[in-house]
Design a protein that fits this description.
2 helices; alpha+beta
């Protein structure tokens, strides 16, 4: 009985470590942190861009919970609060409005 408990505890520890590593990787992606905002020309595209990438933990689809403007470290950013429809993990994606380009 004790051996099964130790095996489960070891498996849970490995799972927790994997989740932490995946969270770190997600923060390094564009939009994953305030210092890595995704550049967009208009706020109209933010909602769709925020949910376009799958959940970094389970690859489930994301849903938008909130889209707001915020000032972080003196920089105006758009922040999309999103959640996974499968595992429920919540995260934020960061966007920076840029001047429109002439095509």
């Amino acid at each position: 009985m004790r051996a099964k408990k130790n095996v489960r505890r070891g498996a849970a520890s490995k799972t927790d470590a994997l989740v932490r590593e995946l969270e770190k990787l997600a923060a390094l992606e564009p939009g994953g942190a305030p210092d890595r905002p995704i550049a967009v020309e208009t706020p109209a595209v933010i909602d769709m861009r925020a949910i376009a990438q799958p959940c970094p933990l389970c690859e489930g689809s994301m849903k938008l919970e909130e889209h707001a403007a915020d000032e972080i470290d003196g920089v105006r950013l758009r922040v999309a609060a999103i959640a996974c429809t499968s595992c429920g993990v919540r995260r934020k994606r960061y966007f920076r409005l840029t001047a429109p380009t002439v095509h």
